[in-house]
Write a structure and sequence with these properties.
Keywords: ATP-binding, Isomerase, Lyase, Metal-binding, Multifunctional enzyme, NAD, NADP, Nucleotide-binding, Potassium. This is Bifunctional NAD(P)H-hydrate repair enzyme. It is a single chain. The protein has 2 domains: 218 residues, YjeF N-terminal domain (Rossmann fold, 3-Layer(aba) Sandwich), CATH 3.40.50; 262 residues, Ribokinase (UDP-N-acetylmuramoyl-L-alanine:D-glutamate ligase, 3-Layer(aba) Sandwich), CATH 3.40.1190.20. Helices cover 40% and strands 16% of the residues. The protein has 17 helices and 20 strands. The strands form 3 sheets. The protein has an 11-stranded mixed sheet with strand order 1-9-19-18-17-16-15-14-11-12-13, with helices on both faces. Strands 4-3-2-5-6-7-8 form a 7-stranded parallel sheet. The longest helix has 23 residues. The radius of gyration is 26 Å and the shape is elongated.
Amino acid sequence: MKLLTAAQTRALDQATTQAQRISSVELMERAATACTNWLLDQLQPAFSTEIHVFCGPGNDGGDGLAVARQLHTAGYAPQVWLLPAEKHSADFLHNQQQLPEAIRCQELSARRLPPLPAGALVLDALFGTGLTRTLEGLPATVVKHLNQSAATVVAVDIPSGLLADAPQPASSAIVRAHHTLSFELPKLAFLLPRNAEFVGEWTVLPIGLDQPFIHNTTVDNYFVDAALLAGRLPQRARFSHKGTFGHALLLAGSYGKLGAAVLAAQACLRGGVGLLTIRTPGVGYTILQTAVPEAMALPDPASDFVTELPELHPYAAVGMGPGLGQEESTAEVLRLLLQQVGSRRALVLDADALNLLGTHRELLQKLPPNTLLTPHPKEFERLVGEPALDDYHRLDQLRAFCREHRCYCVLKGAYTALGTPDGPVYFNSTGNPGMATGGSGDVLTGLLLALRADQRLSPLDAALLGVYAHGRAGDLAAAESGEPGLIAGDLVRFIGPALRELEGDL
């Protein structure tokens, strides 16, 4: 699913009216109907609900007026509040003329702000994606009034005051919506951490916008859903064998952190790897042979941490990091790995391998092309060497880092962002807060290692499938145990079902 800019969204609306030979008013009616139907699903049969519709002077306000009319037809009694303006859009004026006399329509002022009691519903249709500056004056006062109320706030297309794809000052006046109803596609702003308090729960409402335009539009950002991944994970041929799916080497574990190695190894096996060998300190040998009997254990001469790199020629992919520790001798193993792994052998780096890269930044220049890194935000900050100014700056850092080092970078979060060497960023749609638990990242590393060992998959497809399936496994696990009770081991159990959902035809 593509994430369009605000300018591209406006062009999409225009392309739709031209391709489908409809007026902009007809398209607005279609959008309003989608909003109304969503609201009716939430409201029925509570006809006593107090409904307030706040409308700005542009097309977003026109949407609000159309929804108010449709709610009135459905038996509700919405109250409409208008921002005063010298100029209104043509579609706003059309819908204002269509309002029945029974709908109360009042102009807002700083001294005339309606009480919004708990239990009331507020529809925010003040400003949409066309907004290019922060709100001031009366609009800002109205937004503050909405945010201080106890009413449930539903935003039309985007919360008023929130820019769709650009940073803004922390002090900006922005509606704090409980729900946001986006037309056809989500907005980039919905996926960034700072905006969660404004967007609330968001829903995409299809309104039949022109699909050829969307298909032919070049974008910098994607939202990864099952439709985007369709056909990327082929089914297994009947005459497949272990070699078909690759032999992976996992360097993981140190004294006191062998659980990370166990979780990563189990996830790699559940991810479908043909063979797995684990390089682990001597203290981990018995543990791994017992906990992961399907894997081969290759103990290091040192007891407590990894100090030597084994021969790499048997392996299609190498993963390094979970529970590894940051001893200087382990840093030397990483240095040797980057020198010897070559461009034909896939490489996945996580956890302490990333911390070692951040400490020994000269090693970043030795990353082979298509290396896959999986940092959380703090680890990423160490890799780039400076904190991000805001969420958009962090995305710029991600693109620049991936271009410079010709790598893929999984920046973990609520909507995990996958940076690519070519520039596009892919935001993941699966996962839940229950996955914020120790070991979840180790499971992701093992799963990605398995998919990178599979020679049928491109680096991009392996990364997309791994991140999506990891989140999907978390969703399946949460459905069974609940989010608070979810542990990393639960993710391992649901990797198989998550991948099964993604398997396509041969």
